[in-house]
Design brief:
The chain is of the alpha/beta class and about 350 residues long. The protein has two domains: about 55-280, Vaccinia Virus protein VP39 (Rossmann fold, 3-Layer(aba) Sandwich); about 295-344, no CATH class. Helices cover about 30% and strands about 20% of the residues. It has eight helices and 13 strands. The chain has helices at about 100-110, 125-130, 145-160, 175-185, 200-210, 225-240, 295-305, 310-344, and strands at about 10-15, 20-25, 30-35, 65, 85, 90-95, 115-120, 135-140, 165-170, 190-195, 215-220, 240-245, 250-255. The radius of gyration is 20 Å and the shape is globular. The protein binds S-adenosylmethionine. S-adenosylmethionine binds near residues 93, 119, 140, 172 and 173.
Length: about 350
């Protein structure tokens, strides 16, 4: 990784369109940035009002709209009508959504020039948004030991003009995080965790990250729709960190301590958002806390006289039942998609 000073952004507001173009001084790639621009993104993309926007799509030539039934992951929220982007060479794994990418970008803008860490980059979409925010980024992912991934991520970062500020490190968290932290005596101000999603991995990632976070630090999570990932946020809250969740396609979370502040996000108000039971006790950024869905209230009234279970236990059962119901509803499409893929 080269000296961060070589990475200088020049912002030029275009007089006619009010579009600011970011130019990176070593390869002059251009990425459109515009405040609250209508029609900047395709239908199905949502970005919270108030966010600075960035669109590095041209740096990811293999990025296509994914089919949510290509993934069999239980916690993929297939009912959220936001675009799910994938790499056409490996279509079963999704990128952070447009809105989520902007939470990363706008958070990184608050940490410009600081050291940041990402666990789990896949094809580099999230890393690119963090780096465009101006942080000096270490990225750890085992896939980076594969030529296809390393070359593809490097190429995208280069096109975006941020390659010089990103350090791609093949390896597994938490061991690799500890190794880098110790070897370079490194502490990170901003950390994004989107690596191995099954317990106890997310918790183990958080434990090492907390040890290697600066006193003023912020940690972002992706895929909080999974209770296994939620364990990491619970851990930080129990350790005294401030915490909050973002209602996005996969639900993001943020924990922070010291003299830093998270961005405020406005959830897409065209969607009837649900919060899974493991996140019910968290504040949702920018949302009126609407409480439990009305269907649950009817269910509660019907069932409570016949059970000794508490309302919280009943709500957990209700939500889990709903999750299983959704999944069984989606399962034929997931199977059909898998069969079609193998056939053609
Ligand atoms: C969902 S993908 C990340 C997507 C990416 N953040 C984006 O939105 O562009 C999850 C990534 O975590 C990586 N991963 C899995 N286990 C890991 C581990 N122990 N340490 C670091 N990364 C890991 C996978 O190789 C994969 O690339």
């Amino acid at each position: 990784m080269s000296d961060y000073n070589s990475h200088q952004k020049l912002q030029h507001p275009h007089p006619a369109t009010n579009i600011s173009v970011i130019k990176h001084n070593y390869n002059m790639s251009e990425i459109i940035v515009k405040e609250n621009a209508p029609n900047l993104f395709p239908n199905g993309d949502y970005v919270s009002p108030g966010f600075a926007t960035v669109k590095p799509d041209s740096c990811f030539p293999n990025m296509v709209l994914g089919n949510k039934y290509d993934s069999s992951w239980l916690y993929l929220r297939r009912d959220i009508p936001h675009n799910w982007y994938v790499d056409q060479r490996r279509h079963g794994v999704g990128f952070v959504s447009r809105d989520e990418a902007h939470i990363l970008y706008n958070t990184a803008l608050k940490f410009t020039g600081k050291k940041a860490l990402e666990i789990g980059c896949w094809m580099g979409w999230s890393a690119c948004h963090l780096a465009l925010g101006g942080v000096e980024l270490d990225v750890i992912d085992p896939m980076l030991s594969e030529q296809l991934f390393h070359e593809s991520v490097s190429d995208s970062l280069k096109r975006a003009g941020v390659q010089e500020s990103v350090n791609l490190i093949p390896g597994y968290s938490p061991a690799k995080v500890a190794e880098i932290g110790n070897k370079f005596n490194r502490k990170w101000s901003l950390i994004f965790i989107d690596g191995h999603h099954e317990a106890p991995a997310p918790l183990n990632d958080v434990i090492i990250c907390e040890q290697l976070a600066e006193d003023d630090a912020l940690i972002l999570f992706h895929d909080l729709s999974s209770p296994d990932v939620g364990q990491g946020l619970d851990y930080l809250r129990a350790k005294g960190w401030h915490t909050m969740v973002y209602q996005t396609m996969q639900i993001m979370g943020v924990a922070w301590r010291g003299n830093v502040e998270p961005v405020t996000h406005q959830p897409d108000n065209t969607i009837d958002w649900r919060l899974p039971p493991h996140l019910q006790s968290y504040t949702v950024s920018g949302a009126n806390q609407t409480g439990k869905p009305s269907q649950f209230t009817s269910f509660l009234q019907a069932i409570q006289p016949y059970t000794l279970l508490s309302e919280a236990q009943l709500f957990a059962l209700y939500s889990q039942g709903q999750q299983v119901y959704d999944y069984l509803f989606w399962l034929p499409k997931i199977l059909w998609q898998a069969i079609s893929r193998n056939k053609f």
